[in-house]
From TrEMBL:
InterPro entries: AAA+_ATPase, ABC_transporter-like_ATP-bd, ABC_transporter-like_CS, ABC_transpr_MalK-like, ABC_transpr_MalK/UgpC-like, Mo/tungstate-bd_C_term_dom, NA-bd_OB-fold, OB_MalK-like. The keyword Transport applies. SMART domains: AAA. It comes from Simiduia curdlanivorans. This is ABC transporter ATP-binding protein. One of its GO terms (molecular function) is ATP binding. Pfam families: ABC_tran, OB_MalK. PROSITE patterns: ABC_TRANSPORTER_1, ABC_TRANSPORTER_2. Keywords: ATP-binding, Nucleotide-binding, Transport. Residues 5-235 form the ABC transporter domain.
Length: 357
């Protein structure tokens, strides 16, 4: 069955405020798409609209080649996992898993078989006789995921399902969700503000900002080729370094110039030819900076040890910089540093509209 989800020119208004602006998105059959963005960007609103939990002002939503723009949630052929688990507190895990099947009129033998199969898949067979208050946060979320899986729908929606869990449980359940997607090949739309979840789970990431999609692409494409400054700044931890400057064209090279800093950027693949004196915003990720304990123009502010690597904060040439270094890098605060720039890994943006040049 074709479980493609297509959103066309969607607009959603609340209290005379536009929350979603003429948004279009296609999630292909069996694809895992993550809606990523900061709080208030509209990602959960979009997910709820696809689920049928919100009315739309204009545009259309189709699922499995059916227009479901105004269909009831139960008629859309999908299942949803919520951030808050939403388990029935007086029911056991088994009863929570079985509830939707009972309401749908499934036979007892079928319900038993599907609940046991789902519990086995999620490794919660030993928890089926427990009520939610007897389960840990991770166990409750597994039951919530199982309640969606047991319905055997082709489209699954996840609304920040791991945000209430600690780091270890988030890591475990990320792997579980990815494994489940590989096993069942559902079309999956997943909302999060956590870029690590997005990068590790998604086939494609849709980065949202102010009610629209800024960029959609594979995790590596989003990371290495951000199409706007917002995407470049939002993806990556620590965030990309930015500095304002201009372009100087020589006979044999193209340089980015900012005060006394001059960098050869001749290999940069610009969308349009760069021009003499053109103002640009230069962006470079921390891992593309190599710091050395030499007598250079930069001064160390702080080293954050992260184990295998460390984050180096420094300043110089009237700017602050953040770089990544090997975990054994040490220096005293205030020490003079040198920085080498890998100009094969840079991004240039229009300083006015933030678009990639």
């Amino acid at each position: 069955m074709n479980n493609t989800v297509i959103v066309k020119n969607l607009k959603i208004e609340r209290d005379h405020t536009t929350v979603i602006k003429d948004l279009s998105l296609t999630v292909d059959n069996g694809e895992f798409v993550v809606l990523l963005g900061p709080s208030g960007c509209g990602k959960s609103t979009l997910l709820n609209a696809i689920a049928g939990l919100l009315n739309v002002s204009s545009g259309s939503i189709s699922i499995s080649d059916r227009d479901v723009t105004h269909a009831e949630p139960k008629d859309r052929g999908l299942a949803m996992v919520f951030q808050s688990y939403a388990l029935y507190p007086t029911m056991t895990a088994y009863e929570n898993l079985a509830f939707a099947l009972k309401v749908a009129g499934a036979k007892k033998a079928e319900i038993t078989a599907r609940v046991k199969e789902t519990a086995n898949t999620l490794q919660i067979e030993s928890l089926l006789d427990r009520k939610p208050h007897q389960l840990s946060g991770g166990q409750r979320q597994r039951v919530a995921i199982g309640r969606a899986l047991v319905r055997q729908k082709g489209v699954l929606l996840f609304d920040e399902p791991l945000s209430n869990l600690d780091t270890k449980l988030r890591t475990e359940l990320r792997l579980e969700i990815k494994r489940l997607h590989h096993k069942f090949n559902n079309t999956l739309i997943y909302v999060t503000h956590d870029q690590v979840e997005a990068m590790t789970l998604a086939d494609r990431i849709a980065v949202m900002h102010a009610g629209d999609i800024e960029q959609i692409g594979s995790p590596m494409d989003i990371y290495h080729n951000p199409q706007t400054r917002f995407v470049a700044e939002f993806i990556g931890s620590p965030a990309m370094n930015f500095i304002q400057g201009h372009i100087e064209l020589g006979d044999a090279k193209i340089e980015f110039v900012c005060e006394t800093l001059r960098l050869d950027i001749s290999n940069y693949q610009a969308k349009q030819p760069l021009t003499q004196g053109q103002a640009v915003c230069f962006g470079i990720r921390p891992e593309a900076l190599t710091v050395g304990k030499k007598s250079g123009p930069y001064e160390l502010d702080l080293i954050e040890q992260m184990g295998a690597d460390c984050v180096v904060w420094c300043h110089g040439l009237n700017h602050h910089w953040v770089a990544k270094a090997h975990g054994d890098f040490t220096a005293e605060v205030g020490a003079a540093l040198d920085i080498d720039f890998d100009c094969q890994q840079i991004s240039l943006f229009d300083p006015v509209n933030g678009q990639r040049l």
